[in-house]
């Protein structure tokens, strides 16, 4: 058993949302980068459609402001956005308020 069998998976999420959640959790903590000064990756997965229900992109779970400011944002602020993405996906998975 590799551990994934005993780790509960959020239900009701797409495979891309689950993958994004996993990456968001690593990036938000800085685990993804080899060095602290490495560029924080963009969460964009080229599925660009804004949800009228949430106001976030259905692909990357960012707001229009977060998307528009990404290129001018420092690594620390990018990790904050990644943390928000993880919170949003987790809340959605558990049927709670998404915010």
Can you offer a commentary on this structure?
With 99 residues, the protein is mainly alpha-helical. The chain has one domain (15-36, 43-93). The chain is 39% helix and 0% strand. It has three helices and no strands. The chain has helices spanning 15-28, 64-69, 75-93. Helix 1 crosses helix 3. The longest helix is centred in the C-terminal third of the chain and has 19 residues, at 75-93. The chain is globular. Mean pLDDT is 83; it is low at 1-10.
Which features does this protein show?
single chain, about 100 residues, mainly alpha, disordered N terminus
* Total domain modules: 1
Cα distance spanning the termini? 35 Å
Mean of residue pLDDT values: 83
Total E-strand runs: 0
Please count the helical segments: 3
Spell out the helices and strands N to C. HHH
Give a brief rundown of this model.
The chain is built from 3 helices and no strands. By secondary structure, it is mainly alpha-helical.
Question: Mind sketching the topology for me?
Answer:
Layout: H1 15-28, H2 64-69, H3 75-93
């Amino acid at each position: 058993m590799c551990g994934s069998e005993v780790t509960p998976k959020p239900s009701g999420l797409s495979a891309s949302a689950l993958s994004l959640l996993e990456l968001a959790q690593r990036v938000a903590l800085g685990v993804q980068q080899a060095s602290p000064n490495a560029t924080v990756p963009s969460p964009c997965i080229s599925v660009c459609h804004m949800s009228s229900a949430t106001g976030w992109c259905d692909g990357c779970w960012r707001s229009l402001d977060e998307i528009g400011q990404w290129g001018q944002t420092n690594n620390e602020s990018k990790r904050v956005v990644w943390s928000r993405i993880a919170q949003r996906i987790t809340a959605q998975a558990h049927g709670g308020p998404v915010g």
